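step: validate -> pass
step: tokenize input -> pass
step: predict -> running
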Amino acid sequence: MYRYVLNRLLLSIPTVLGVATVSFLLMRLIPGDPARVIAGVDATVEDIDRIRRQLGLDQSVLQQYLQFIGRLFVGDLGTSARSGGPVTTVIAAAAPRTLQLAVLTLMVSVPLGCALGIFAAVRRGRLADVLASILAVIGVSMPVYWIGLLLVIVFAVNLQILPAAGARSFFSFVLPVATLSLYSIGFIARQTRSAMLEVLRQDYVRTARAKGAGPLRVLIAHAFRNALIPIITIIGIQFGNLLGGAILTEVVFAWPGLGRLLVESITARDFAVVQGAVFVIAIALVALNLLTDLAYAAVDPRVTL
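step: predict -> pass
step: emit ->
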């Protein structure tokens, strides 16, 4: 296992560097002068030139890129043009909020999504299956920002029982988590239903029933356990999307996480923060993919690393 993990980590280096390179180039393609945006409307030419020198924008793109890559290898993500502090500090302040949102969303969506998918598979072709499938499709199809706006209108504006924005208390988590959970539940439920239908047709499930195993034992110990591989895959993908910032949701609810930080930094032309945040997210996704592969071997002994 240690050799497998080491090989995967070595292979992930080109991927992470590729993501960093793309983010660097894309930020340079955004129209407008970052120094002028940061300096403000009333800034003088001297102020703009000074900011340009501070950000290293007076150098060639190749020089900026080489310096950027060189700093990455020593863990230096640069300095934020807006706050004037290290990018690592800015990201460290926002990342825990996104992680909290992602973990809580998974804690809600994984049990409900799996339960809905199992229920639909057991009731295949019946009214319950149709209703469960409709709910899953609705959850997947509705844009998260539209769900978020509806929840804000109902629970924050009309009923006034939940906060509409910010992260000041436990109740501030309710609407963002509910918004993201509806989306994730749909994906997990559809994948669980498909995987369970495939497994329930296998011979060992019929053998377990013939031996007198109870319905619950057949579903959980025999069918669901052997259907976990594709379910783990979709859970890993969903967790990766959530760690990516759940940008639209964080913007709708003014959530102080990575997604909102990225949007604000792009608007302010804060190159260092955008590049640093994308780099951190890329590392998180690589690590998450590795953990997903390790989980395959943990739940299914037939999978070899």
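step: describe -> The chain has a mean pLDDT of 83.
step: cleanup -> pass
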